[in-house]
Structures are given as C-alpha cells and as structure tokens.
Amino acid sequence: MRRRILPALSLPLALLLSACVSSSPHNGSGSSGHTDGKGDVTLDVGDQKGNDEAVLRAAGQLDNLPYKIKWSTFTSGPPILEAVSAKAVDIGGVGNTPPVFAAAAKSNIKVVAAKHGTADGETILVKKGSPLKKTSDLKGKSVAVAQGSSAHYQLVASLAKAGLSIKDVQVTFLQPADALAAFTRGKVDAWAVWDPYTSQALRQSDGRVLTTGKGVVNGLNFQVANPSSLEDAKKAKAIKDYLGRLRRAQDWVYKHPEEWAKVWGEETGLPYQVALDSVKRTNGTRVYVAVDKPAVASEQEIADAFAKLKLTPRRFQFADYVDTRFNGDLPPSTSAPRTYGKGS
Fold it and tell me: Where is the composition biased (Basic and acidic residues) (predicted)?
C-alpha cells in the first residue's frame, strides 16, 4: 500500500490507509490527537483521517462541549475496534464490515448507532471500453477487491444475484492503491470498490459502473462502543450527547455539500471534484437511523456469508453485539437515504 503508484491517479496515503478492510494491520494503532471541550468527563474517541472529528469541527458541533473529547486517529476500522475492545478508546466510527470480523473474534464491543446511505458508491467497475455489460459477464474474468472488505461482500452478493459464485471469477485480492494501478493499466477486468475510490476511478481512470450495491448491500456505517463505557453513567451521557452532535453534523453535510467537499479534500488530499462527487453520490446521503432488527438482520447476512467462505473463525449472533439504548425516536434503518437528485 505504501508504494507510490501513478501519483496523478492515486489517493493520498492517509485516505488509502483509511479503507475499512477486515484484516487488522497491527501497525494501525491510534496516534494521540488533541482534546476538545471541558469538564470532568473525558470521552476517548477513535477516528480516521477526514471522518468524525473533521465533520464535527466543520459543522460547528465541537463548540460548547460540556465534556472533553480526546481524539485518537487510526488507519482503518479494524484497529479502532481493537482499541474499543481493549478500552483504549470509548467509541469509534467504522463501516459495515469491521464489526462483523471483530464480533467473530469475540471482541468486547457494542454497536450503538447507525447511519444509512445510498449504495451507489459501492460498485463493480470496468473500463469504458470493456465488453462486459452485466454482472453475469464476469464469469471467468479477473476481479480486484480488498479481501474481507465491504466490497468483498458486495462482490459475493452481486455474483449470487446474477446466479454466480465467487468461484466463477478469478479473484485478485488487492488493497486500493494496487487495485487502482491494476485497474488503470488493464491488468484486471473489473474492480469491486467503494467511495471515494468509485468517484475517483469514474473521473480519473476511465471507469464505468458495471453494477452498484443497490439491493445487495445495506449501506450502513456504525458507531461502536466499549461495554464498560456504556456502564459508566457519566460516559454514557456523554456518548448520547456525542451521537446527537454527529447526527446534526450529518444534517449539515447534506445541506452544505460543496463546503464539506472542500474541507474533506483539504483534510485528505482528495481533489475537490472527486470529493464533491463522493459527497453527492454517497457521503452526504447518509442519515442516522435506529440500530433495529432489520439492521441486525442485514449484518447477520454479512456475518453468515463470510463464515460460509471461512474468512471468519465462527458463526455467531450479531444481535449479541448491539446496544439499542440510543435509538430513541430515530427512523428505522430501512428508511430511504437522502438524495441530491439526478442532476447532481
């Protein structure tokens, strides 16, 4: 991942390292950031570059904090969950796949909040000149994907929907930097990936969408906490307030896509137009929803799929790793995500 590949096309290292893949790099431990707020309660938060801290700050949601937030930055979702399980942080935000692998490893975690966005950024891409027109055309073809990532599950589910299995394609396990290079040079026939890589490939790498995750992936992201933090009344109160600020920040993102794209680009090195494409395709469409039975059931499908592929060590009940106390009056997880319309 650290090799410089096609500098004009490759994403900055900080963003490449933030991909939510399943196998945790042991060098992904958090780096201590600064502290916001004041008070006698400190909430230790695990974050990724350009994610929760950045959006909260841009939306003005770190003002007037009645408690302290100590930020720690991690390279990806899995090491955040390692830190949560080890009580090194109280809470952190991740994609839909890291909690499955963490739970399979019997980590000490609880999913406490969810947000639902479009699946338009979860794609299988081919080159514009490719003869492949539909998912079933992938039979016998080579597909790049990050092993154990949300894109890996999307590939499995998309193939199944087309009447194929993962054994019907030649899977090449590559992290985004290497996959981008392979895709750009025509070394693979297709690439299963997520935003903002989708937006980048469409704009800069002559990519074309073969299929999206619509109807096959759940479009969920999660906030995950340590059970002991939830048992601490003062920290639980701070977590409730923190989740409320995240919801308000997400509302701000939807209403200010251009402003957020500019901030996000500056934080991560994404070109502004790629960032804006990703905001309007995926990032800005997300809305906070309840961690309810449909959400749990969709995560259970992911868990069962990876267990069947023997990529996780055991079968388990995802519901055992969920705490619904913060659902409140949030809409159901099946609620439609936001949209910027066809002309966006």
Answer: 35-47
CATH 3.40.190.10 occupies which residues in the chain? 35-116+219-321, 123-212
Full DSSP string of 20-59 = --SSPPTT-PPEEEEEEE-SS-EEEEEEETTSHHHHHHHT
Angle at CA of residue 274, ends 273 and 278, nearest 5°: 115
Amino acid at the residue 43: L
Owner of token pair 């309810």: 292
Bridge-partner residues for 69, per DSSP? 36, 43
Please compute Rg for the chain using Cα positions: 19
Q: What would the DSSP string read from start to end of 317-328? A: -GGGGB--TT-T
Q: What are the DSSP E strand ranges found in 246-297?
A: 287-289
- Is residue 75 within 8 A of residue 283, CB to CB? The reply is no
Q: What distance in Å separates the CA atoms of residue 198 and residue 150, rounded to the nearest whole number?
A: 13
Sign of the alpha-carbon torsion through 91, 60, 114, 122: negative
Q: pLDDT tens-digit profile of 31-70?
A: 667 899 999 999 999 998 889 999 999 999 999 999 999 9
Whole-angstrom distance, CA of residue 302 vs CA of residue 307: 9
Please give the CATH superfamily to which domain 35-116+219-321 belongs: Periplasmic binding protein-like II (3.40.190.10)
- What share of the chain has pLDDT > 90, as a percent? 77
pLDDT at 1 over 50: no
123-212: CATH superfamily = Periplasmic binding protein-like II (3.40.190.10)
> Closest Cα to residue 161, out of 100, 116, 119?
119
Q: Which of 30-44, 63-77, 257-271 has the lowest mean pLDDT?
A: 30-44
- Its pTM stands at 0.84
Asked if residue 189 lies in contact with residue 141, where contact means CB atoms within 8 angstroms, the answer is yes
DSSP class of residue 322?
A: B
